[in-house]
Amino acid sequence: MMAGEMEGRLSGTSVIPILTVQDPEQAVLASEALARGGMTVIEITLRTAQALASIRAVKEALPSLQVAAGTVLDDRQMDAALAAGSDFCVSPGLTPALLRAARDRGCSLLPGVATASDIMCGLAEGFQVFKLFPAMAAGGVALLRSLSGPFPDVRFCPTGGVTRENLGILLAEPNVLCCGGSWMASQSLIDAADWAAIEGLASAAQSGRGTGP
């Protein structure tokens, strides 16, 4: 994977909506609402039995939307995600085996990091964009600023504890490329079929305001 590829994928978005869905039809409807709100990238986590079917359904319905498979832990899940049509994969952490699997498959991967050692492992394999997870529990803005000194060329997608209230604060950090969050398409909004609310939250988040007007 080229070092700048992930940055190119994410450079046009302020936030990646994270969906954990139980039903492919709901996944499509939620994704359509997010797309109407201006989202160009979403993540569907591999935490439910219908996750792969949901990725496949969303890609068929919205081929121009970038769909990432989240919570990818090993090469088996990576293979399944790619077979389902995911555009790239996201992991909560990194291992040498996972990084090698991504390289061997030509798979775009956003690996998770929480420490300087994690970042150094990723850099050694050619990665420069990382998911900072769990972002707020690990230190939030203070951690981002601390990491900017030794790693001036690294960019982050903070995820974990990111809310519409703190989104703007995180995006203001120079080493933050975008953020990941689940509030735009929460399970309660999906269950209520409140697609208008999802669209509105997406629009506010994509503008970098988070909370909306």
Automatic annotation (TrEMBL):
<dbReference type="InterPro" id="IPR013785">
    <property type="entry name" value="Aldolase_TIM"/>
</dbReference>
<keyword id="KW-0456">Lyase</keyword>
<comment type="subunit">
    <text>Homotrimer.</text>
</comment>
<keyword id="KW-0119">Carbohydrate metabolism</keyword>
<dbReference type="InterPro" id="IPR031338">
    <property type="entry name" value="KDPG/KHG_AS_2"/>
</dbReference>
<comment type="similarity">
    <text>Belongs to the KHG/KDPG aldolase family.</text>
</comment>
<dbReference type="InterPro" id="IPR031337">
    <property type="entry name" value="KDPG/KHG_AS_1"/>
</dbReference>
<comment type="pathway">
    <text>Carbohydrate acid metabolism; 2-dehydro-3-deoxy-D-gluconate degradation; D-glyceraldehyde 3-phosphate and pyruvate from 2-dehydro-3-deoxy-D-gluconate: step 2/2.</text>
</comment>
<keyword id="KW-0704">Schiff base</keyword>
<dbReference type="InterPro" id="IPR000887">
    <property type="entry name" value="Aldlse_KDPG_KHG"/>
</dbReference>
<dbReference type="GO" id="GO:0008675">
    <property type="term" value="F:2-dehydro-3-deoxy-phosphogluconate aldolase activity"/>
</dbReference>
<protein>
    <recommendedName>
        <fullName>2-dehydro-3-deoxy-phosphogluconate aldolase</fullName>
        <ecNumber>4.1.2.14</ecNumber>
    </recommendedName>
</protein>
<dbReference type="Pfam" id="PF01081">
    <property type="entry name" value="Aldolase"/>
</dbReference>
